[in-house]
Design a protein that fits this description.
Blueprint (H helix, E strand, L loop, with lengths): L13 H27 L1 H6 L4 H34 L3 E5 L5 E4 L1 H7 L11 H8 E2 L15 E9 L5 E12 L5 E10 L1 H8 L9 H16 L6 E8 L2 H8 L1 H18 L5 E6 L2 E7 L3 H15 L3 E2 L7 E2 L2 E8 L9 H16 L5 E3 L1
Parallel strand pairs: 12-13
Antiparallel strand pairs: 1-2, 1-6, 3-4, 4-5, 5-6, 7-9, 7-12, 8-9, 10-11
Length: 360
């Protein structure tokens, strides 16, 4: 038997001896555990246990910040998709008009591709594409005075004229100081079409004509074009069509002549139904010769129209046209009202023999 074992005293049972060994082993275990703790620094770990709640709180805060950042990224992506998907043009610029952000709607309104770039000037773009040209958009936006729903038109690089509603607003900081400018340019074509279009012919109505002739005559008086011409058209024997064949045939004649008119004039011209069977065309930057040349083309194309009717030969349509031209010097002694009257007088002269063009 090994000498390390504790001898059993005489008279004691083995069970009693084992009861004395247990405390000795327990003491040995405590000494070994104390040595282990001191060797691996568990005492320091145990002393740091009171800091665990702070660590747990810090972890929860980090997790909360992570969730907030994830939510913010999702919101940013959502608002960015709205910014890009809207058909309205949205342009963000600094207080000097330097563009910092724009969406696809802005590219389509201005009909620009790579030319519309970060760093271009918002006021330059709006002023350059605005009709009538020369409208100083930058002068409309002053500190603490916003611009809402300015009705105007933009002419893109490809010649497309788009009626728009222009809104300019300041973006402010937490104390209300202006930090940036946001421009929202809404394509107003459909609204304009409903408001200013004649439902029968598809031409502009007389209300739109009055607005446009005033705008164009104002441009002429400021010397922004060399000449402004106007054509007045009247369908020959239109009353007879209605009387002999009914108003449905008369309406079809008006529609067919209007189609010829829209297919013949330029995109910068304005063709309108003045009233009844009278039509009118505004021709910006067009002199006498150009106006008469266009009028003759319209007259010839209208004379080629044939309208089928039941139980009879096709109807042949003709039109009489009066032309009048004004130049900037004429604006000193004339008005828009007189300009319209002079074009109408030229029409009356043409109607004396029908199917002809006369200058006023």
């Amino acid at each position: 038997m090994s000498s390390s074992l504790v001898p059993v005293p005489a008279g004691e049972s083995a069970f009693t001896a084992r009861r004395g060994i247990a405390p000795a082993l327990a003491g040995l275990f405590r000494r070994l555990f104390a040595w282990f703790v001191s060797l691996f620094g568990a005492r320091r770990t145990i002393r740091s246990v009171p800091a665990l709640p702070a660590l747990i709180a810090a972890g929860a805060e980090v997790e909360g910040l992570r969730r907030e950042a994830s939510l913010l990224r999702g919101q940013t992506a959502f608002y960015r998709s709205i910014f890009e998907c809207t058909s309205d043009a949205i342009i963000v610029a600094d207080l000097n008009g330097c563009i910092t952000m724009f969406n696809q709607g802005a590219v389509e309104i201005f009909q620009l591709d790579e030319d519309l770039a970060i760093g271009d000037n918002l006021f330059r773009l709006c002023t350059e594409f605005c009709r009538p040209s020369g409208c100083e958009i930058s002068g409309l936006l002053v500190r603490n005075k916003q611009v809402r729903n300015l009705r105007t038109e933009f002419m893109g690089l490809k010649g497309k004229i788009t009626p728009v509603l222009l809104t300019l607003n300041f973006v402010t900081d937490q104390i209300g100081a202006p930090k940036a400018i946001v421009a929202v340019i809404k394509d107003n074509s459909e609204v304009e079409k409903l408001t200013y279009t004649d439902p029968l012919t598809g031409l502009y109505n007389v209300r739109y004509f009055q607005r446009k002739i005033n705008e164009e005559y104002s441009r002429l008086s400021r010397g922004q074009m060399d000449a402004l011409s106007m054509l007045f058209l009247d369908l020959d024997l239109f009353g007879k069509f209605n009387k002999d064949y009914g108003h449905q045939v008369g309406d079809e004649v008006l529609r067919r002549v209007s189609e010829v008119l829209m297919a013949t004039v330029r995109c910068c011209d304005t063709a309108a139904r003045y009233g009844g069977d009278e039509l009118v065309v505004i021709l910006p930057s067009t002199d006498d010769a150009g106006s008469l040349h266009l009028a003759e083309r319209i007259r010839q194309r209208v004379s080629e129209i044939r309208i089928p009717v039941p139980d009879g030969p096709d109807i042949r349509v003709t039109v009489s046209i009066g032309s009048r031209t004004h130049r900037p010097v004429d604006c000193a002694t004339n008005t828009v009202t007189l300009f319209i009257r002079q074009a109408n007088m030229a029409l009356l002269k043409a109607k004396e023999k029908r199917n002809r063009v006369c200058a006023g």
